[in-house]
Amino acid sequence: MVLERDPAARSKAEILCTYPGMHAVWAYRVAHIWWGRPPARLAARILSQLARRATGVDIHPAARIGRRLFIDHGTGVVIGATAEVGEDVTIYHGVTLGGRAMSAGKRHPTLGDRVMVGAGAKVLGPVRVGADAKIGANAVVVTDVPDGAVAVGVPARLTGRAPADDRDPVDQHLIDYMI
């Protein structure tokens, strides 16, 4: 999966040894299993904190994360307790999937399948980001993003449909603007 999504990745050995996002997800998977067993919740939190210190990625063990999550570079990524992340999602460094309130219940975002969240973006509150959507770098998303849409800016605004290829949504927005 990493070899497909990261052009800088040169080998499986390099990925296994040097990708902190992968290490954080592995630790999360164990912590999430422990979180489901109440006597082991303290151990789950301790493991998640050790992983945070080692990788710079903070994933709460209660979060729900689908298969093949790719966290590129990793440093500064925060995924809150009630966050839900679909399958084949790509998250870049400095992303926060966080809450806006300290109330009980669902307070973190839900990302659909194949979502891309650009570096430094913040997705806050119990919002839904639809499948195949793209969030531009440093965007602040506080409202729902429909399937296949591109959201950029502060606060984020929709700029159209996600490009069919892998171009950055901000670059695509600029191209669309210039045409």
TrEMBL record:
<comment type="pathway">
    <text>Amino-acid biosynthesis; L-cysteine biosynthesis; L-cysteine from L-serine: step 1/2.</text>
</comment>
<dbReference type="InterPro" id="IPR005881">
    <property type="entry name" value="Ser_O-AcTrfase"/>
</dbReference>
<protein>
    <recommendedName>
        <fullName>Serine acetyltransferase</fullName>
        <ecNumber>2.3.1.30</ecNumber>
    </recommendedName>
</protein>
<keyword id="KW-0198">Cysteine biosynthesis</keyword>
<comment type="similarity">
    <text>Belongs to the transferase hexapeptide repeat family.</text>
</comment>
<keyword id="KW-0808">Transferase</keyword>
<keyword id="KW-0677">Repeat</keyword>
<keyword id="KW-0012">Acyltransferase</keyword>
<dbReference type="InterPro" id="IPR045304">
    <property type="entry name" value="LbH_SAT"/>
</dbReference>
<dbReference type="Pfam" id="PF00132">
    <property type="entry name" value="Hexapep"/>
</dbReference>
<dbReference type="InterPro" id="IPR018357">
    <property type="entry name" value="Hexapep_transf_CS"/>
</dbReference>
<keyword id="KW-0028">Amino-acid biosynthesis</keyword>
<dbReference type="InterPro" id="IPR042122">
    <property type="entry name" value="Ser_AcTrfase_N_sf"/>
</dbReference>
<dbReference type="InterPro" id="IPR053376">
    <property type="entry name" value="Serine_acetyltransferase"/>
</dbReference>
<dbReference type="InterPro" id="IPR011004">
    <property type="entry name" value="Trimer_LpxA-like_sf"/>
</dbReference>
<dbReference type="InterPro" id="IPR001451">
    <property type="entry name" value="Hexapep"/>
</dbReference>
